[in-house]
Design a protein that fits this description.
335 residues, alpha/beta, Nucleotidyltransferase, domain 5, 10 strands, binds zinc ion
Amino acid sequence: MKILGIETSCDETAAALIEVKAGRFQVLSNIVSSQVDIHRQFGGIVPEVAAREHLKNILPIVDQALIGNSWSDLSALAVTSGPGLITSLLVGTETAKALAFSHSLPLLAINHLEAHICANWLNRPIRFPALALIVSGGHTQLVLVKKQNQYQLVGETLDDAAGECFDKVAKILDIGYPGGPVIEKLAKEGDPQAIDFPRPLLNKNGLDFSFSGLKTSVLYFSRQPDFKEYKTKDVCASFQQAVIEVLTAKTLKAAKRYRAKTVLLAGGVAANKALRQNLASQVKKQLPSSKFFHPAKGLSTDNALMIAIAGYYRFREKNFTPWAKLKADPNWQLA
Ligand code: KG4
Ligand code: ZN
């Protein structure tokens, strides 16, 4: 069986085609068209511009993703319905509705956060319960995956998301957009112990996060008269270290509390190698009988392959979305 996935929740227009044979996924195509160069000049995503770019790109991207397959080869069409930017989501959902209607295909409405978790599902032995840390531009959540398609939110950020914090700190330091990859690159040459930035809620028993105070600390630090004496690389390394320590400690706390057999990292910030390494080594040390997974290359940030994979599991449950009921929901909660 073959499933086409479509993703337009933010500033990536993406389509992917998977084939599933005997429960194993084969990636037939995975096309992502990023608008990052367009939004960079504004220092962030401009929703109306994003929607117009999606409109221009969506059909050519879908055509590319089909790579010669005909519509009658497909079993279903999976599309991100939320959460995300409403103007961006609408392009994906309305396109999917039109395509599904004209080619008589069933539709699968996919939650973008669920799909980020499913980016880990690519032919790996996931044992349940699993504990997923979702860290993206708009969300920071700890989600208990009790079994396939069954989620429980156990912790989340009370203010900024981790990715948002990377982006805002990069803006404060005026080093580029998006902040995550730029900070990670500079941090490699800096000293993570140079500046003692706060680790918000680190020693609290709860599983929630807070990143706005850390961002404000970097802002005040950068306004000090002697700031120029510090190296931007050290600020990046020290900031990144503070984020990683908090994310790792809370994830391990949750994994122990819920006796997770697998620990998963998901979302755009999962592309950060220092975070992956720290989580991997702490899981090995503190939870030796659990496994740690992060998405394969290119599957941390937004893509449609994860939408198609999530679609397969919805398809298996015959959890189709009636044509008239498919709608864009910018605030769709995973759990
Ligand atoms: O999941 P994603 O592609 O889009 C949303 O669903 O939001 O995540 C984008 C976020 C941005 O905030 C970006 O700065 C962050 O992921 N990001 C990173 C890295 N690559 C992307 N953060 C830290 N290190 C990275 N290497
Ligand atoms: Zn995302």
